[in-house]
Amino acid sequence: MCERIPIQQQLISCHWVRKWKFVENLIAWRLVVACIMLVVILHQPSPISATCRKQDVNSCEAICVPVTGGTTWGENITTAVDTPLEWRCELRIIVIMPTNTSIEASLPRVHPVLMKAEEEIRARQIIPPSVAIRWIFYDDQCDQARATVSAMDGTGRDCGHVILGPTCDYALAPVARIGRFIYNDGIPVITGAGYTFDFVQNKTRCEDEFFMLIRTGWLSFKRIAYFMIDLLKQ
Ligand SMILES: *[C@@H]1O[C@H](CO)[C@@H](O)[C@H](O)[C@H]1NC(C)=O
Ligand SMILES: *[C@@H]1O[C@H](CO)[C@@H](O)[C@H](O)[C@H]1NC(C)=O
Ligand SMILES: *[C@@H]1O[C@H](CO)[C@@H](O)[C@H](O)[C@H]1NC(C)=O
């Protein structure tokens, strides 16, 4: 009776059970409790809140927006209630990287890998096929200021959902620092670089400088140094 069906229907069916209780016995009561618990449990995975700076949620932050009958949606969303709503979903990924190929992790080198990754994501259906992926590229020239501005444009103007971070440590630092204060929930900054000592510190609380930074490796210059020392000791 209370399977995985839309929550409104669930509430209705639970409501019916609740009415039933008065004419029936203890079993009905238990069903009510079970229904209520199910509703609570289904509600439980509330959106993860990483709010380090409380802000109004911008409507463009949503991955899926309702579209009515092929026209773009304006202010009057209420007028669309009786027409079936369609959804347009788009995941916007900001890539901040230098284009100069004399830098190891540069855009021309990384671009084919990203496309390959998208192919893989599609093939394994990691995200639903109806969700489009839009890559938004910024050249930071390994420069702190350019990287910061790219992150601000990428979120403020292009309304990106995730930043594939700068690969130069100096450019990564400011982007990873402001990541926690962009949007209400912060924006994840994912990078394969970030070997400097500071990036390795704990990132579990808002006070941690690089709270929204996700490094894809365990390696850091410090660990490499210790590794070399251990190697020389052998
Ligand atoms: C929105 O609805 C109101 C009231 O029905 C109407 O006056 C207004 O023109 C509508 N606006 C748009 C953009 O359709
Ligand atoms: C790329 O970087 C190298 C080394 O820093 C520099 O010599 C070269 O001029 C740069 N190329 C461009 C197109 O900026
Ligand atoms: C990181 O957190 C762990 C567990 O809370 C703690 O043991 C460790 O000392 C912390 N490291 C730093 C550098 O603060």
From TrEMBL:
The keyword Transmembrane helix applies. The keyword Transmembrane applies. Keywords: Membrane, Transmembrane, Transmembrane helix. The chain crosses the membrane at residues 27-45. InterPro entries: ANP_Clearance_Receptor, Peripla_BP_I. This is Receptor ligand binding region domain-containing protein. It comes from Culex pipiens pipiens (Northern house mosquito).
